[in-house]
Amino acid sequence: MEKILVVEDDLNLRNNICEILEAEGFNVISARDGEEGFEKAKGVSPDLIISDVMMPKIDGFSLIKLLSEENTTSTIPVILLTAKVSSEDVRRGMNFGADDYLLKPFRIDELLNSVQTRLKKKEKLDIKLDQLKDDLSAKLPHELRTPLVPILGYSEMISAESDLDSIQSMAKMIAKSGGILRDKIEKFLLYKDLILLEKKSFANNRLTLIDEVLVHNVVNQIQQSLFPQKRVKIINLEAGTIRINEKYLSPILFELIENALKFSEENYVVEVNAFKEDNLYKFSVKDFGRGLSRQDIESINSFKKFGENSFREKGLGLGLEIVKRISSLHNIDFKLTSELNKSTVAELNFPL
User: Fold this and answer.
1) Angle, helix 108-159 to helix 11-23, in steps of 10 degrees
2) Would you say the pTM of this structure is higher than 0.70?
3) What is the number of domains present in the chain?
4) Residue 311: what pLDDT?
5) The domain containing residue 170 runs over which residues?
6) In this structure, is residue 98 part of a structural domain?
7) Nearest CA to 24 among 55, 2, 53?
8) What is the pLDDT of residue 305?
9) Biggest CA-to-CA distance, the chain
10) pLDDT confidence of residue 191
């Protein structure tokens, strides 16, 4: 049974709302003002809060701000009740994090429709949060343990070593592993953000330049920190303005190129191609490694989720998951083709 907290200083209206919601089977808690509402929200963790805007002590806007600053209440949806709604009020409420507005006096069906809509949205968010917890608990220990081993191992060796050259060499390995660990943490933070983003509320209207300078910077970053012995050859790179949020362009290219270098054989070059064709900007990365089976490619291209064992055995990690999620948000066509034990081509088709 969902819990709903009603925060309203008007006794009659508060009682009426509570009776309507209780008749629908909800567990209803009430508060007389924003101060009491905030304390009750922290105590009972309701699934939804319905709050008046104009109240003594703490008004509805201030209540939302307080809720957003508490870890236990920051994701609770809030419906605001107000006698008048100006565009400025709506903008202010939305900036604070209000999920909906109801104009007084409102009909019973308006109230119930808004309640059901917000509860369904919260249910979807809860599912995403559970998915995030499961994913992180499965992948985080393994991903972070790998770079931690040399950090701890070389630290121990340094404490017992007296030769300066050996100490300097081990210090470099610690610095390298620390950089890898930092990159892993940043990758997990990006993954968390991508999971929680709603595609329908994501504004994909920003144009970003992709050119040889950007790609070279991404390649250099990967080679310096991860694969200094492996090479990338840019076969062709036509500059273009593509439809993608700027903050996600470098990460999606990074993951694609890093993945190719990870699986390429030592003496082979990873090839990068990029050009415009048929209202698309086509960016592809080809590696000459062990390749992927048809079953693996079908799973990736159809957005099926790999199990934890598959991630570990194939070494796919979070990289392709991040590529898939960024692609989905921006309507980018992402696909893989591969010849087993020969090569794999990863391709991104960006809308222009």
Assistant:
1) 80
2) no
3) 3
4) 40
5) 127-196
6) yes
7) 2
8) 45
9) 82
10) 79
Residue 252, both tokens: 């999606």
**Residues 213-236 pLDDT 10s:** 999 999 998 888 778 888 999 999
Measured between alpha carbons, how far is 281 from 296 in angstroms, rounded to an integer? 26
Say which CATH number the domain at 345 has.
3.30.565.10
pLDDT of residue 7: 96
Residues 76 and 179 in one domain: no
Provide the Cα torsion 338, 289, 292, 325; round to 10°: -90
Buried b (16+ CB within 10 A) or exposed e, 114-123: bbeebbeebe
For 197, the enclosing helix (H) or strand (E) is none
Last residue of a domain, one of 171, 196, 221: 196
Distances (CA, A) of 99 to 67, 77, 211, 344: 13, 6, 40, 45
Q: Please check whether residue 113 lies inside any domain of the structure.
A: no
For 304-341, the DSSP string reads: PPPPHHHHHHHT-TTHHHHHHHHHHHHT-EEEEEEETT
Question: What one-character DSSP code corresponds to residue 167?
Answer: H
- Provide the CATH number for the domain around residue 152: 1.10.287.130
Query: What band does 84 get if pLDDT is binned at 50, 70 and 90?
Result: low
In tens, the pLDDT along 129-143 reads: 676 666 665 566 566
